[in-house]
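step: validate -> pass
step: tokenize input -> pass
step: predict -> running
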Amino acid sequence: MRRLTVTAIAVLTIGGMLSAGCANGEMSEEDVERVVADIVSANSAVDTVTFDLTMNGNIDVAETDDVSQIAIVAEGRGIVDSAAEQMYMALTMNYLIPGEDTSEIPVEYYFTDGWMYINMEVPGQGGQWMKMQMPAEMWDQQNQVAQQVDMLMTADEVNFLGMEDVNGVKCYVVEIVPALETVRETMSQMKGQMSQFGGVDLSQMDLGSMMTEMSVTQYISAETYLFMRTDQHIVMEITPEALGIPASSFDRITEDLTTNVVFSDYGKPVTIQLPQGALAATEMG
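step: predict -> pass
step: emit ->
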């Protein structure tokens, strides 16, 4: 039950400025505001993009007189078609538990026609297709580029850190202090879209209260103002009460995750085709 709970949470909670006018590597507040406006404009006009994602972190499950530690390593690749409001991501998650064999869990996500389809390889049960209907306003939460634009626009603070090359592209490096309450509100909106998953009623999750820390660094092309890379670090504290399950299940789960996303192939033609097997997906909710 514990491992399945942790897996279910991880699967559903997984899923970028010019030196002119700057002195000593700094930017004035006016410069930052101008460049942020250019970044928002450039990325809002993007129709298609490909991204590669890596995730590393630790999950600590605290129980009475015991703490179980699980390391998580994940790699994935995805495509976003904003014009068609479609998204695809294939992700392989590896859970490393001391003294046990590594658990490898491939997961596929499709967002199309207002539905999120998830295909997860459950150990001992094979692949299982699930789907949930997503309201129109949830699209931007699935769109990797739109997520970055939204964080930049609603940030409590934006700091220019300097310049750095990403895959040969000269980039501005921007540190964002996210508006944590906005992030929490966005996550809480997902609660209504969750139902029975992995044997746990995730619709009871109070996602908004789980986020305790978040930091974001964006790398933005100095020429095109498009996101080249983002690094994100989050810490979540999960209690049985937040999940709506008995307190005897565990004391607390702490997730400490760092995610890196590299963007490429802006504006290139893409095809996202829902597999035949997804048509028989079990509806969640």
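step: describe -> The chain has one domain: 2-276.
step: cleanup -> pass
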